[in-house]
Each structure stands twice: as structure tokens, then as C-alpha cells.
């Protein structure tokens, strides 16, 4: 394997499509697993993803598509694989992959979520279930909305790897004239921060739906950063600067942007939608919904004071009234 070798993308949503655009800026070709063969055919006919970021045109000759039962062929043909499917489906995808197909592969988590039911990080799941060694696991995150990548607006990513040399290699292929890329060894911290920022974005959305103003939103996010820092430093204490873009920057863009599906989900809850109704109308995955349950379960062990996370959990899982819950939460802020 020279450098990062042949690159594969597992998933076909908006973020997967944005990553494909980023990677094809530096790579001659990529492998791309799209679950449904009919979507592959439409993709080839149209020259763009038929369902997401339809304005992004691709040179189909530079993409080797795989679909349906070809997932093991996709793994065998790829040296570096970006996991970019919604977290509720990651187990479903990976359980179809033979153990031998993981050997020697560099697996990059770009999901920004957890493995539901297991309540563990994707990096932990890869090690425990699929026996991927830690030096072959990485994460990519940061304030980088797919919709802005599509428009080539300046965006920022951070690649975290347990093997920092591999992070440097990945950074070199992700960086271009509209994407800047940093490196980090804090795989676990980045993964946890990516989960937490989605929860806090739901909180911001709920408050927006309840007509809380900008002043309160700023205090909410200030407290959310403090809460994030306390949790991440408790579960994985390494030297990190929580104000870096992969932590604070990603929190800010997810909490404030209209592109944020977690904020959108929270906004609907704040306006009176039930969880089920909001999920059905969005027709997209809000990762913070699953993340809040995971962090709630994990925190039984760590006992970190997390009033914002607890408030979101109560509203979306225990059907606590949004207005009363947020009113109580507001009393704790300064």
C-alpha cells in the first residue's frame, strides 16, 4: 500500500457526496459503494447523485461503483475506506463484510455518530467487533457542511489517527483550494465531540422553536462547550485545545446553521412536533437523537454533570415538555 492506496467511500448521502467531491480534487479515481443498484444506474445516467447534492457534477469515468451484494468486493478493492453511512445502519453494513476484508485496511470514521444499541464509538466498535488494530483507524470531522462543500465555500477538516503519520497522509489528499485540513492524534476526543455537538444542536433548535433569542442561544452554547470539555476530558484525558475548530467550530456551525439537520430536528420539537412526526417530515437522520441516548448511558459510569444533555434526553426520550424543561435549564446558566 503506497500512501493511502485506493480510496473507497461507503455511503451515498450528502456528506458522502461532499467527501467524494473533496477526494476527487486530488485523486484520479475512487471506489464508491452505493447501496441500491438503481441509484447507481441513475447516478451514471445523470452524472450526479440522484438524491443528494444534485448540483455537484461528477466525471463518472473516475468512479468505480459498487452496490447491493458487492460490499466485500468494494472492501477488497479499497485500501483506505471512509465510513459515511448514518449511524443506525453501520452495523447492518459492516456485518456483511467478512473479517478477512478488513485486514490491512485503513478505516476512517466520517459518521459523526455512535453505534446505536452498543452505545460505543465507531472506533471502539471496529476494534472490538471487527478486530481492526487502532493504528488502522482514523476519524474525520470539523465544521464542514456538505452543502457548503458543494458550493466550494472555504471549509475546515481535522483528521485524527492513532498513527499520526497516516493522519498526515490523509490530510494531504483532503486539502485543496476550498478545504483546509489539520491533523490530530485525538481520535476518541474528536469522536465524542462529534456526538455531543449534535446533541447541543438539538438543544439550540428546541430553543429556537420556543422563540428564545440570540442572547440565550449564545449562553446555551457557551455552557455546552463547558459541558463538552468536562465530559471529553473525563472519559479521555489527553492534551487538547477545546477551542480548536474540530471541537468548538463544529459545535458552532451545527448549532447555528440552517443546514444542520440536528438543529432542524430540535426546532421542530420546540414548535410542538412529536419526535416521530419530526423524523418523518425530515426524512433524514438527526444523529443527536441516537447520540443523546448513548451519552446518557455512558454517563452512568462517569457521572459528569451534563444538564444540557439531560434536558435534551428528557424531551426526546421521556416526552418531557420542551418549554418547562428549557425553562428549568435556563435557571442553571449565568
TrEMBL record:
Domain of life of the organism encoding this protein: Bacteria
Keyword NAD attributed: yes
Binding residues for NAD(+): 89, 146, 261
GO cellular component terms listed in the entry, alphabetical order: cytosol
Annotated InterPro entries: 6-PGluconate_DH-like_C_sf (IPR008927), 6PGD_dom2 (IPR013328), G3P_DH_NAD-dep (IPR006168), G3P_DH_NAD-dep_C (IPR006109), G3P_DH_NAD-dep_N (IPR011128), NAD(P)-bd_dom_sf (IPR036291)
Domain Glycerol-3-phosphate dehydrogenase NAD-dependent N-terminal: 6-165
Active-site residues, as the UniProt record annotates them: 197 (proton acceptor)
Organism: Porphyromonas macacae
One of the GO BP terms on file: glycerol-3-phosphate catabolic process
Protein name: Glycerol-3-phosphate dehydrogenase
Classification via PROSITE patterns: NAD_G3PDH
Enzyme class, spelled out: oxidoreductase
Keyword annotations of the record: Lipid biosynthesis, Lipid metabolism, NAD, Oxidoreductase, Phospholipid biosynthesis, Phospholipid metabolism
Catalytic reaction(s) noted: sn-glycerol 3-phosphate + NADP(+) = dihydroxyacetone phosphate + NADPH + H(+)
UniProt similarity note: Belongs to the NAD-dependent glycerol-3-phosphate dehydrogenase family.
Its EC number(s): 1.1.1.94
Chain positions recorded as substrate binding sites: 112, 261-262
Domain (Glycerol-3-phosphate dehydrogenase NAD-dependent C-terminal): residue spans on this chain: 186-326
GO molecular function, one term: NAD binding
